[in-house]
Specification:
The structure holds 2 protein chains of 2 kinds. By secondary structure, chain A is mainly alpha-helical. Chain A has 2 domains: 247 residues, no CATH class; 111 residues, no CATH class. Helix content of chain A is 63%, strand content 1%. Chain A has a two-stranded antiparallel ribbon with strand order 1-2. Chain A is globular and about 75 Å long. In chain A, 37% of the residues are buried. In chain B, β22 and β23 form a beta hairpin. The termini of chain B are far apart. In chain B, 34% of the residues are buried. Chain B has a single domain, classed as Neuraminidase (6 Propeller). Chain B is 7% helix and 40% strand. By secondary structure, chain B is mostly beta strands. Chain B has a 4-stranded antiparallel beta sheet, with no helix packed on it. In chain B, strands 2-3-4-5 form a 4-stranded antiparallel beta sheet, with no helix packed on it. The longest helix of chain B has 24 residues. The chains are: A mainly alpha, B mainly beta. Chains A and B meet through α2 and α5 of A and α1 of B.
C-alpha cells in the first residue's frame, strides 16, 4: 500500500512539471508559408457518455458506501479512491464535478435562460442523497479531489481546536460568495479556483499550479486541507451527514474506551467522551441564554457588514465592470482603449441601457450580500451557541458532520467485529 | 407523461433504491448493545468446585455486637472478641460469660500464658484473663496501626501496618527487635501492604509467620528475625491469593496446617504446613456480600473460629477426618 502511495505521489509531481511547461513557449513564427490551423473547438461529449458518468458515479458511491459501512475495509476505500482519480480526474478531467455543480444549480434557479443538464443535477444531488443515507462516503474517495489529498496525507498531524474552528468557517464564506456570484452569472469561482483540475487538464496557470502544489504539500501533514478549510460543497455534505441513517463508526462492535483511536483521525473528527459537571451546565445555561438573545444581533450586524461589500463585489460581474469602464470614459471624455470597451462601442447599444443593466445587477448584489451576510451571522451565532451546549458522550465516536469516512481509524480499534 | 412527473418519479426511484441498497447490502451488522469482549468476567472468579471443599461441620453464633474486630482463644477454649469498645468473653459452648470495657475497640487480641494481650491502634495493653489491666505501652508512632499480635513465652510480636514492620517486645514493654526491611523492596522481608491487613502468628516450632499481603505470601522468620521461607501464589484460582491484600488473616492448626481467610473473593481455605492448598472450608455463601476482616482463631480442639465483623457473627468450622 505504501509503495503505491509513493508511486502515485511521483506521478502527480510529474504531472505538475508537465503542467507548468504547457504554456511556456510562444507559438513559432513560420516563414515557410505554413499556415497554423484554426483552433478547433472540441465537440461536447455525447449525451450517452454523460449518462454513463452518472451511472459510474452511482456505482462508485454504492461501492464506497459498502466498503465504508458494511465491509469496513480501508483497502477497499483506497482502491475505490484510485478508481475515482483515474475515471473522474484523469479520464473525465474533473468536469462536471459535484463541488462545482453547486454553481450550475444556483445559476439555473436564478437565471431562467440557463438550462441545467440533468446529469449536472445528478452530480449535485447523488452525493448529497448518499450522504443522507451513509454519511460522507462521497468524500471518502469518490470525490477525486478528496482522494488525491487522502493519498498524499502520509504524515498527518492534529490541528489544535483554536485554529481548526476558525479555519472551518472559511467554506461557509466561500459557499456564500460562490452562490452569490453564480446566481448573478458573474463567475464560477469554485471552478476558476479549483486547485487540482488544472493538473488533470494540464493547463494550470502558474498561480493555480502554485496554489494546488501548496495544498498538496500541506496535505502531506494536514489531512485534506481543501476539503476541511475550503470546499463549499463540504458544507452541504456536512449538514446531510449529521442526519445520516447509517454512518460509519470507529468500532465494529462496541466502544471499550481504550483511547487507542484518540489521535487516529487525520481530519480531527473524533468526538471524545464528555463528562458533564453541574457547574458546567449552570455556566452553559447562562451563556446560552445570552447568546440566544444576541443571535438576531449577529445576523443583522453580519448582514449589514457584508452588504457594505456589494459594490466592490459586483465589479466581478462583467456587465458592472464594463459599465464602470464606460462611465469612466464618459466622466473623463476619453477612451480606455480596452477590448471590452471597443466591443461595447461596436454594438451600438446605448450606455444608459448598460448602466440600467449594471444597476439591476448591483441591486441584486446588494440583497445577495445582505442575505449571505445574515447567513454567515447565523452560522457564527449557532457556532457560539453550540459551545454552550454540552452533550453527554460516553464513547469515542466520529463527528458525523466532519468525518469524511476515510476509514483510517478502523485499524486502531481492538474490538473484533460482531460475528 | 410530463417531464416534471418523470423527474419526480426518478427522484423517488433513487430514494427508494437507496433505502433498499442500504437496508439489504450496506447496513452494518453491529449494534451498540454488543457486549465489551474485553470486559473482566468475574462471575466465575471465587467459585469453588465441590471437590475442593473440605468435609466440615459448621455452626455459627451471633455475638450481639454492632461491629466486632478481633478474636483470640485461650488454652481452655474461651473465646475473646473485641468490639463496641469492649472485650467479651465466650465460654467453650459459646455463651457469654463476661465482658469488660476498653477505651476504644481493640484492633488485635492474643492470649498468652494466663495473660490477654490487646492492641489499641498504637498502644499495647496486657490484661488478666478476667480483664484486669496489668501493663501498657505505646512507644509506636501516633499513626501506628497494630493489626495483629502473636505471643511466644515472654515475648510479644506486634505488627504495625502503618510502618509495615513487626516489632518484638518483651512482656514488660521493651522493644527487642524490628522485623522487616524497608531498604530493599524486592526482598520478601519487605512487607507490601496496600491496606491495613497484616497478620502474624506463631507456629508450633516457635517460628514467626507474617502475612505479606501485597505479595500474596506468608513469610516465615526465626526468633531472631531471620527469614526462613515463604509460600503463596498469586492467582484467582482457589489455590492462590489475589486482590490487593490477601490472605488478610491466617491462623495455624496443631498439625502446622494454615487456615487463611481472604477479602474481595471471600473464602476460608486450608493449606498444609508446606503451603500446599488442601481444601476450602467456606466460600462466599457462608458470609455476607463483601465481607472483610475475617479474623481467625483456632482452639485446642482444632475448631476454626472465623469472626465476621460487620455481621457480628462467629462462624465455627471443624474439619472432619
Amino acid at each position: 500500500m505504501q509503495i503505491v502511495k509513493y508511486l502515485l505521489i511521483s506521478i502527480f509531481l510529474l504531472i505538475f512539471f508537465q503542467t507548468s511547461n504547457a504554456q511556456r513557449f510562444p507559438e513559432p513564427d513560420f516563414e515557410s508559408g505554413y499556415e497554423v490551423p484554426e483552433t478547433q473547438t472540441i465537440a461536447p461529449r455525447a449525451l450517452s457518455w454523460e449518462y454513463l458518468d452518472v451511472v459510474v458515479l452511482f456505482i462508485a458511491l454504492s461501492v464506497m458506501s459498502w466498503f465504508v459501512i458494511k465491509k469496513r475495509s480501508r483497502k477497499g476505500i483506497f482502491w475505490t479512491s484510485i478508481f475515482s482519480i483515474i475515471y473522474f480526474g484523469v479520464i473525465r478531467l474533473g468536469c462536471v464535478c459535484s463541488v462545482g455543480s453547486i454553481q450550475n444549480v444556483t445559476l439555473s434557479l436564478f437565471q431562467s435562460n440557463y438550462i441545467i443538464p440533468i446529469t449536472v443535477i445528478a452530480f449535485f444531488a447523488l452525493p448529497l442523497l448518499f450522504t443522507l443515507f451513509f454519511g460522507r462516503t462521497f468524500c471518502a474517495g469518490v470525490c477525486f479531489m478528496g482522494a488525491v489529498q487522502d493519498l498524499v496525507n502520509i504524515k498527518p498531524i492534529s490541528i489544535p481546536t483554536w485554529l481548526n474552528k476558525p479555519l472551518s468557517a472559511i467554506p461557509y464564506i466561500y459557499l456564500v460568495l460562490a452562490l452569490l456570484l453564480a446566481a448573478t452569472g458573474a463567475d464560477f469561482i469554485i471552478c476558476r479556483y479549483d486547485p487540482f483540475i488544472g493538473f488533470f487538464r494540464m493547463n494550470a496557470t502558474f498561480g493555480m499550479f502554485v496554489f494546488g502544489a501548496v495544498i498538496l504539500i500541506l496535505g502531506i501533514f494536514i489531512g485534506r486541507p481543501y476539503c476541511r478549510f475550503l470546499c463549499p460543497y463540504g458544507v452541504l455534505l456536512n449538514w446531510m451527514s449529521r442526519l445520516s441513517f447509517w454512518h460509519t463508526t470507529i468500532t465494529p462492535s462496541v466502544c471499550i474506551q481504550c483511547k487507542l483511536c484518540d489521535t487516529s483521525c487525520p481530519v480531527d473528527a473524533i468526538n471524545k467522551p464528555v463528562q458533564i459537571k453541574p457547574e458546567t451546565i449552570e455556566k452553559g445555561r447562562n451563556r446560552l441564554i445570552t447568546l440566544f438573545v444576541l443571535l438576531p444581533v449577529f445576523i443583522v450586524a453580519s448582514g449589514f457588514l457584508a452588504s457594505r461589500l456589494y459594490k466592490p463585489l459586483s465589479t466581478i460581474h462583467p456587465t458592472v465592470h464594463l459599465a464602470e469602464e464606460i462611465k469612466w470614459e464618459q466622466d473623463n471624455s476619453k477612451k480606455t482603449g480596452s477590448e471590452d470597451s471597443k466591443a461595447f462601442h461596436s454594438t451600438g447599444i446605448q450606455a444608459s441601457q448598460l448602466f440600467s443593466d449594471a444597476g439591476r445587477i448591483q441591486h441584486f448584489f446588494y440583497y445577495g450580500t445582505w442575505i449571505g451576510g445574515a447567513f454567515l451571522g447565523l452560522f457564527f451565532g449557532i457556532s457560539l451557541l453550540k459551545t454552550s451546549i454540552v452533550r453527554r458522550q460516553e464513547d469515542y465516536e466520529p463527528d458525523k458532520g466532519n468525518c469524511v469516512s476515510c476509514g483510517k481509524c478502523y485499524k486502531y480499534c481492538p474490538v473484533p467485529p460482531t460475528p | 407523461m410530463k417531464k416534471n412527473t418523470l423527474t419526480y418519479l426518478l427522484i423517488a426511484g433513487i430514494v427508494i433504491g437507496l433505502i433498499v441498497l442500504g437496508n439489504f447490502f450496506i447496513k452494518p451488522n453491529y449494534n451498540s448493545k454488543n457486549e465489551n469482549p474485553y470486559s473482566l468476567k468475574i462471575d466465575s472468579i471465587g467459585q469453588i468446585a465441590a471437590v475442593d471443599f473440605c468435609d466440615v461441620s459448621y455452626s455459627k453464633i451471633d455475638i450481639s455486637l454492632n461491629k466486632a474486630i478481633a478474636i483470640a482463644v485461650d488454652k481452655n477454649n474461651n473465646t475473646y472478641i473485641s468490639g463496641d469498645n469492649k472485650i467479651i468473653i465466650l465460654s467453650k459452648n459459646g455463651t457469654k460469660t463476661d465482658e469488660f470495657a476498653t477505651e476504644i475497640t481493640a484492633t488485635a487480641l492474643i492470649v498468652g500464658d494466663n495473660i490477654l494481650c490487646a492492641a489499641f491502634k498504637n498502644k499495647v495493653e496486657l490484661f488478666t484473663l478476667e480483664g484486669k489491666p496489668i501493663k501498657n505501652w505505646s512507644d509506636l508512632s501516633e499513626k501506628a496501626y497494630i493489626t495483629s499480635l502473636a505471643v511466644i513465652a515472654d515475648q510479644i510480636f506486634v505488627s504495625d501496618a502503618e510502618s509495615a514492620l513487626v516489632y518484638k517486645y518483651s512482656m514488660d514493654g521493651k522493644l527487642l527487635q524490628t522485623i522487616g526491611s524497608k531498604a530493599d523492596k524486592n526482598e520478601m522481608n519487605s512487607f507490601i501492604l496496600p491496606s491495613y491487613y497484616f497478620d502474624v502468628a506463631i507456629a508450633h516450632d516457635n517460628s514467626l509467620w507474617v502475612a505479606n499481603t501485597g505479595r500474596h505470601k506468608l513469610v516465615n522468620f526465626d526468633n531472631k528475625g531471620k527469614m526462613l521461607s515463604f509460600w503463596g501464589d498469586t492467582s484467582s484460582g482457589v489455590e492462590g491469593f489475589c486482590g490487593c491484600c490477601n490472605p488478610s488473616h491466617f491462623a495455624i492448626m496443631s498439625d502446622g496446617s494454615f487456615i487463611t481467610s481472604e477479602k474481595g473473593i471471600v473464602r476460608v481455605k486450608k493449606y498444609n504446613s508446606a503451603g500446599v492448598f488442601e481444601c476450602a472450608l467456606a466460600g462466599q455463601e457462608y458470609f455476607t456480600e463483601n465481607a472483610t476482616g475475617l479474623d481467625i482463631a483456632i482452639n485446642t480442639n482444632d475448631e476454626i473460629l472465623v469472626l465476621e465483623p460487620d455481621a457480628s457473627t462467629l462462624h465455627i468450622f471443624k474439619i472432619n477426618n
